[in-house]
Amino acid sequence: MSVLPYALIDSGQGRKLERLGGVLVDRQASQAWWKPALAPKQWAMAQAFHHRDERGGGHWELKAPLSESWWLKHGPIQYRIQLTPFGHCGLFPEHEGAWSELAKILEARPEGSAAPRVLHLFAYTGGGTLRLAKAGAHVTHVDSAKGIVQWARENAEGNGAAELPIRWIVEDATRWVEREEKRGQQYDALVLDPPSFGRGAGGEPWKIEEHLLPLLDRCRRILVQSPLFVHLSAHTPGLTPLIKARLLEECFGDSGSVTCGELWVNEADGRRKLPAGSWARLERDSRP
Ligand SMILES: C[S@@+](CC[C@H](N)C(=O)[O-])C[C@H]1O[C@@H](n2cnc3c(N)ncnc32)[C@H](O)[C@@H]1O
User: Fold this and answer.
1) Exposed, middle or buried, 41 (CB in 10 Å: 0-12/13-18/19+)?
2) CA 193–ligand 1 middle distance (angstroms)
3) pTM over 0.90
């Protein structure tokens, strides 16, 4: 059976209308301050509508029963999609462009050189991990949620990538970095997409404004002197591209150049963009 692609159909009034493979869903998009381009009757065709509750959870209202999960394709990766109570579905499509650029950096390394060791923190359902591993990296995939790491492994299997060199770790990100430092481990590159709030595998609270800088400082100690890249993204409101860039400059600035920008998803009309967080990246200087 062919796997259908992801598409962002429309956005507006704080919502987005997406085709997740064969299923049309309507869920929150707090950045969509504008009016939708499509008529209400087209939005009403959504098969699933997400309601958020005040405590950050929520529920889906379904027009008709749906399979518990299904697959879609986005970029070169197939994702198992499942509607979770929080409104997440197993894919953050806005990262595809950045992952493709990181894959290019990895593929451009000199022939015969050792596989770069990449640490991927807050790695979710593994889209980034699979892109990096397919580009030749040895990836350590760290996420504190056991079920999410299992989901990432299913995505690896679904992409025929179960044999790629990936270590699947269920652990608090900061704890894992502390452990790796004690073991004297070194990585060539780092990718992280921390949430605003989270919990470590042992219930450790994660608050981005409190814990991101200490984590980056610690990561410096387990990275080689001149890392290939450090790619930081996040969806936290107020954590602008320039703030991310400055954090990277402060922690790693002596080892490369930092660029930054917004994340977005293109709408199906090919013209409109839905912003979705931002990123900053340190890359090894290629200048002599
Ligand atoms: C925003 S998602 C990352 C999305 C990912 N970049 C992607 O697009 O595929 C954040 C992830 O961080 C994980 N997480 C939250 N707190 C954590 C912690 N303290 N240590 C490790 N992972 C954590 C969550 O389980 C979740 O999978």
Assistant:
1) exposed
2) 7
3) yes
